Amino acid sequence: MGGKSTGFAVELFNGHKDFTLWQQRVRNILVREGLVKALKPKSKKPEEMKEDKWEEKRELTNSTIQLFLGNSTLREVINETDPAELWAKLESRYKSKSLTNRLSLKKQLYALSMPEGGNINEHLDEFNRLITELEAIGAKIEEEKKAIILLVSLPISYEHLQTTLLFGKDTLGLDEVIATLISHESMSRPGFST
């Protein structure tokens, strides 16, 4: 079940799902509702805004964020009244930039392997999740390296496609690899004809 206080459905964050994606969705809602400025520290009140309006905006921002938290996560931050501090606390707990977290995510990425007969869209989603989480904590991976990691994560049945993508190229782009994989998947479906 997700929070719908603003007319947008966002799955409640319970500490076990993709924090980066959840955070982006909630931030988008805050932008749309005109509340994102309240994520700045309290001392950064816009000059043109009256103090009582600023406090109201901060309370609304804090409340909006909390409405998208699951019970266990909400309990961890329930006493936070400043939206900037609430946001920072959630980031420090769930968007860890520690060496351990970085290594864990890289290990998952490099070990990623699509099983024979697996769903390419699910595989791409998991690949993109890992890349997004790594980039969110400051671990940058070159585009060509991403493309190569994705290619080597594919099962043996994709070997011909891998060879075709690499043949006669000096560089390899991730977007090209993804587009080719999606196109290949579409053409492989039963009922596809040219």
In words, what does this structure look like?
The mean pLDDT is 88. Strands 1-2 form a two-stranded antiparallel sheet. The longest helix is centred in the first third of the chain and has 17 residues, at 51-67. α2 (51-67) packs parallel to α4, α5 (99-111) runs antiparallel to α6 and α7 runs parallel beside α9. By secondary structure, it is mainly α. The two termini are 42 Å apart. It has helices spanning 19-32, 51-67, 71-77, 83-94, 99-111, 120-136, 143-152, 159-166, 174-188, and strands at 2-3, 10-11. β1 and β2 (10-11) form a beta hairpin.
- Cα Rg: 21 Å
Q: Could you tell me the number of beta strands?
A: 2
Shape: elongated
Order of helices and strands: EEHHHHHHHHH
Number of helices: 9
Chain-averaged pLDDT:
88
Q: How far from one another are the termini?
A: 42 Å
In percent, how helical is the residue content?
55-70%
β content, as a range? Answer: under 5%
Strand order of the largest sheet: 1-2
Low-confidence stretches: none
What can be said about the biggest beta sheet? 2 strands, antiparallel
The chain-level structural class is mainly alpha
Protein name: Retrovirus-related Pol polyprotein from transposon TNT 1-94
Organism: Rhododendron griersonianum
Topology:
Blueprint: E1 2-3, E2 10-11, H1 19-32, H2 51-67, H3 71-77, H4 83-94, H5 99-111, H6 120-136, H7 143-152, H8 159-166, H9 174-188
Antiparallel strand pairs: 1-2
Helix pairs in contact: 2-4, 5-6, 7-9
Protein name: Retrovirus-related Pol polyprotein from transposon TNT 1-94
Pfam families: Retrotran_gag_2
Organism: Rhododendron griersonianum
